[in-house]
Each structure stands twice: as C-alpha cells, then as structure tokens.
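Hi team,

Below is the intake form for RanBD1 domain-containing protein from Molorchus minor. Please confirm the fields before the structure is written into the shared record.

FORM ID: S-0412
PROTEIN: RanBD1 domain-containing protein
ORGANISM: Molorchus minor
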Amino acid sequence: ESSPRKDRSHSESSDTEYDPQFKPIITLPQVEVVTNEENENELLKIRAKLYRFDSVSEPPEWKERGTGELKILRHKENNSVRIVMRRDKTLKVCANHFITPWMELKPSVGSEKAFVYTVLADFADEKPKTECLAIKFGTVDNANLFKRTFEEARKIVETECDLYNGKGDEENEMLLAENKENGSDEGRENRKSSEKNGDEAEVTKKSAN
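The structure came back. Fields below:
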C-alpha cells in the first residue's frame, strides 16, 4: 500500500507539471485610443496637485481639483502651448488651457513648492471658464522645473505662435487688400469671408486640441 506521504508527493508533482492552455473564444480587435495629443510635443511631464479658487462658495475658498500627471504640450504646426492635467486612476481631465504671453506665475504665500495663476479659458469642463488656479509640487526642484518650462513656453508662444506674433494678422491684411483691388463680387465675398475668418481665428486656434 502506498503511504499518504507518497500520494501527496505524487499529487504535488502532477500539479506542477500540468500546464493547461486555453484559447480565447473571441478575438477582440485592437482599439486605438485618441488622446488629442498626437500633434503635440511634450515639453514637460510632472506630478502635481491642482486647486481652483471657488469665489461663489460662502465663504470663498480653495478646492482641490485633482492629483495626477501634468503635461506642457507644444503644437507641432502652430506652436501654441497648453497645460493638460489628468487625475490619477480615472484619467479625467482636470486642467486644459493654453499658455498666453501675459500669463504670470505668482508664488503661493507660505510655500516654495506652489504657484498661483489665472487663465481666461480653461476647457477641463468642456465649456471654457475663467479660473484662478493653484498648483503644488512634491519638491522645490519640481516646482522650479515647472516654472522654467512655463517661462520658456511663454516665450515660444510670444515669438513663434501666429496668434500672438502678428503673422496671422499680416496674412489677413494682404488678402483683404488683394480682394479690394479686384473690386468684383467675388472679391467682396472673399473679403467678408476673410474678415469673418479673422474674427474666428482666435477662437478656432484656442479650441483646437
């Protein structure tokens, strides 16, 4: 008769040698996830915590908006630069706004790791809203790195982005002058279209992802 020890040893040996293979019943196609960042270069990626100032609450107070990865992204074609931040786990956007030449980082009172700034249009909630934001980093070095990259982004926007360096306005003026010389109905229609495009240019570029 076999002993219980031998039976147990044989059973354990069988379990380790048995390697079942299961083929999938359904093969799912690979889904490409679009992040709207495909046409942008990453200037900075860093962890941070974001707050927004709620002036409507009584009394007004700072409210946490999310913790996660913050990115500073430069568009490959029009050289606009924006800040995008997504919350941990859910990856929900909690900040999405462009950097403009007149935006200013102000040090947060009582902390060397945080800054305060105001944006005219943040698209985190899909509809543009003016927000006063505070951003805090884990270390002073990370805070300084963000500040340097932010200032570099401001210079890029001011000198290379058509929306702010005047190149877009010059093109519109040349087109208007050419249509005016033509004096035709087509020229007048093109002039109206150019004027409309000039008015909508800023909104279009700011809302482009």
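SUMMARY LINE: The helical segments are 4-17, 140-160, 162-165, 167-182, 185-207.

Thanks, M.
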